[in-house]
Write a structure and sequence with these properties.
alpha+beta; 5-stranded mixed beta sheet; disordered C terminus; 6-stranded mixed beta sheet; single chain; Deoxyribonuclease I, Chain A
Length: 372
């Protein structure tokens, strides 16, 4: 049985000291107190915390937000001293006005990059891109799709900005659907050949959506637009199976893609969240200041127990004293004291694999349901 250690972390403005003329990053220059010494301290603190993840084993698949560019992720990995972590280079960079990006790295011993795509959602202003990477698990040859994003901020007010996050959620839902369904013309060809296995295998494609969503698991953007919830049966139950070919291809096209959100489990827990926020500039105050904004969401293919599988019990918020206060609040980095790491806490999870080369069949799904 093999494992892949996953981590997601919003690094809170991990900028270098140079002024980028096309981005509003002037807060992060030597003139503003963001000196090379301060930058090096932030980098060292982040690296120390990343190495502590997964019981000191560190991440083997790392996705981050609020980083200025791929070169800084490479510097951070060098600081970690992990020669096996490689940056998934994104030649398109970022279109965000502040110049912050989403980036990814992977352990070359465990994974290989098959493709990468940077997606821009066309809102009223330039925003962070969605970074989609297709990996192959080296040992099993299985496909793993990771879609990482940093959704629009709540700074203008939670509900005023909600339509922007709904738009991003819809776009990601579209990307997920493109991976778990075959094209209509292909579907008709497969139906003529009575090749249902290809349709089923595609339906079980293993997809992870990870990011700082700036909404919580129960919010409308996540539940209604991304179609992610805590209803496991909605995702892998019989009502979401593909049992046979549809007579009308339109019925196959219309089948909704539901996702499972294991980070929902943190909502009922007191003083548990990846972010701590009392209120917004708009004056809005939050009843629950510990918010689960950072989430990891899985497609049904990672939940059926065949091949590469997400260990649901492993999904956790890292709350070590390196990154959190005794009360569970994140320790943001201070350029004055040079202590702390980020205003978000890291999210961790484990993928397990070992059932090499075996396809998921309708019989497998019946067994899963019986075991439940």
């Amino acid at each position: 049985m093999g494992t892949i250690n996953i981590a997601w972390w919003n690094l809170q403005n991990f900028f270098d000291t140079d002024d980028d003329p096309i981005s509003k990053d002037f807060e992060y220059t030597a003139e503003a107190g963001w000196t090379q010494e301060v930058f090096e301290a932030k980098k060292a603190n982040l690296a120390h915390a990343l190495n502590a993840l997964h019981g000191g084993a560190g991440p083997e698949l790392l996705a981050v937000a609020e980083i200025e560019k791929d070169a800084l992720l490479a510097e951070l990995i060098a600081e970690m001293g992990n020669p096996h972590l490689k940056v998934v280079e994104d030649p398109t960079g970022t279109r965000d006005l502040r110049g912050i990006d989403v980036a990814m790295a992977y352990d070359e011993r465990k994974l290989s990059v098959q493709s990468r795509t940077s997606h821009l959602v066309h809102l009223r202003y330039r925003t962070r891109d969605i970074f989609e990477v297709v990996f192959e698990v080296n040992e099993t040859g299985e496909k793993l799709v990771v879609i990482a994003g940093h959704w629009p901020s709540r700074q203008l007010g939670r509900y005023r900005s909600e339509p922007l996050r709904c738009a991003v959620a819809e776009h990601i839902a579209y990307l997920v659907e493109a991976h778990v369904k075959v094209e209509p013309e292909v579907y008709e060809q497969l139906r003529a050949q009575n090749d249902q296995d290809t349709v089923l295998q595609t339906w079980e494609t293993k997809v992870i959506v990870v990011g700082d969503l700036n909404d919580e698991p129960g919010d409308r953007s996540v539940v209604d637009h991304l179609r992610a919830s805590n209803d496991l049966d909605r995702v892998i139950g019989r009502t979401n199976d593909i049992d046979d070919f549809e007579t009308e291809t339109a019925d196959y096209r219309a089948q909704e893609v539901f996702l499972f959100n294991p980070t929902w489990k943190f909502l009922p827990q007191q003083q548990v969240g990846t972010y701590f926020l009392d209120g917004l500039r708009s004056g809005e105050k939050f009843t629950n200041r510990y918010q689960v904004l950072d989430q990891l969401i899985a497609s049904r293919g990672l939940l059926t127990g065949s091949g590469l599988t997400l260990d649901l019990d492993s999904v956790d918020i890292f709350r070590d004293s390196l990154v959190a206060t005794p009360s569970g609040r994140p320790r943001p980095f201070s350029k004055t004291t040079k202590k702390g790491t980020s205003d978000h806490l890291p999210l961790t999870a484990v993928l397990r694999f070992g059932n090499i080369g075996r396809r998921v069949t309708a019989a497998d799904r019946v067994i899963v349901m019986r075991e439940e």
